[in-house]
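Researcher: Batch entry, complex prediction.
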Amino acid sequence: MRLIELRYGFITGAALVPKQSLGTRGTVTAGRKVTVLVTTKERFGDIEIHEDFEFEQRQWRVQRIGWVVMGLLVVAALLGVFGTGILSRSQLGSGGPLEVEYERFSRLLSPSTLRLRVEAAPGDDQMVEVWLDQRYLERFQIERVTPQPDSVEALSDRLNYSFKVTDSGQPVEISFNLRATEIGLVRGQVGLPEQQPLSFSQFIYP
Amino acid sequence: MDAFLRTFFIYIFLLLLFRLAGKRTLAQITTFDFVLLLIIGEGTQQALLGDDFSVTNAFLVVLSLVFLNIMMSLLKEKFPRVERFMDGLPLVIVEDGRMLKERADKSRVDKADVLAAARKLQGLERMEQIKYAVLEVDGGITVIPKNGQ
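Model: Structure tokens for the complex:
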């Protein structure tokens, strides 16, 4: 009998060793043939292979967590955390003379709509005026404004849009089709002349 | 600059995603896996190119991808831990004709997969003719037949 120490599971000669790993000690009877199964860093049974079961187990755990995270991201996307969904749609100033409907989350270069609803009675000239702050609009491409504004006036920090209204008494709905051109948080202000403006902020994903 | 940044982020994202998805996700290319691969390509194409369809941009994107991959392989060469993190390690799933259940289940490999690999690679007929089967890092299964088969 001879005592051998197994470091990497290389057995020269015959060995009688329990099916164990790294550093196992065992007794060897010379001349007797025994199958030895050793899981180590460099060998599994007869094959020279670099496997690591503990690493594999850790990896499986991480993968499973990863799948859960993927699922959560899908749910978040469905709800609109990344734009267009119930968590994204947002409204301000309901019941007031000016209502704003906007997307809290939007994405770079993807279309989004800013909807305004003006309840104010038109003046003598049958015009309804709305202004938007210029810094906000600079971060978007304005694809279309419906209805077409009668005139757009540039003031120092805002753009004044005037719309001609013939059917008075009905609220006017104005939509701005926008496309974000910059990433990050955007703050916007919209208002009617001589009234408290409404402020809102949007987040633009890359 | 943004050509490289786009490529970089997409590269890292895909790397992490497919690492989390596991070796087997797109390894055994079935017809549907193949279709899925194509659609993934379509999905990332826009983000890679942005709205710049110039030849220069295409050059830059492809250049960045190849460069990133070369850098990554150098890194893997130098640091075995990085290689292990990125590619994983091979795993023995059949020993002496017997499925090692936990390993196989967790890696999403079943007996049918092993037998298919045994038929294809070694012309084997039954489980007991297999000495070892290994799930390799590329997601494929290699089979070592018993002696004398």
